Structure formats: structure tokens, C-alpha cells
Amino acid sequence: MKSRETLIRLKKFQVDEKRRKVAQIEAMIAEFDRIAGELEREIKVEQDRAGIHDPAHFAYPTYAKAATTRRQNLKHSTDELRVEMLDERDQAREKAEENAREQAELDRIAALRFNAGGAPA
User: Which of 49, 71, 78, 81 could pair covalently with 39 via S-S, beta carbons 3.0-4.6 A apart?
Assistant: First the structure.
């Protein structure tokens, strides 16, 4: 019985660890989205200040170009984090399903032993 309790504690710890990782990823996504929003505003201000909104124009502001590149990189990173978060959730779900199957099998074995008159383990 003690090994079962240890296994349950281990599984709970693993689930909690996955939850913490997902929460960290969600926080990073929120921060990247916030920074990308700030960059969007800064790009608009710089374009308005220069009076040039076409990135292909020869006099397009250098800061606006750099901020646009940084914003694109942040959005790309955010997309990758969202994929990673979905993968983490899928893995956690699969692990929970596996644990449920294992528990059902252990319960079935225990019921068979109990019904057969065997001593509980």
C-alpha cells in the first residue's frame, strides 16, 4: 500500500510540475504580447513623426524598421511558445489517461484478489 501512495504522490508532483511549466509559458506569452503591443505603438509614432508609412521607402525610419523586426521576432516566439504549451497540455493529458488506465488495472487486480479470498497486499 505504501508503494501505491508513493506512486500517487509522484504522479501528483509530475502533474503539478507540468501545470507550473504551462503557467510560466502563459506568462511569457502575455509578456511578449505586451511588448509587441508597445512596439506597435512606437512604430506608429515613428512613422507619423517621419510622415513615411511605407517600409520600402528609402527614407523610412531606421528605428521603425528595427522595431518592426523585433515585433515580428516576438510574435514568432509567441507562436512557438503556444505550440510548446499545447504540446505540454497534450503530454499531460496523455499521462493522466495512462495513469487512469494503470489505476483501473490495479483496481481490477485488487478486486480479483479480494474476490478470490486472497489477503490484501
Answer: 71
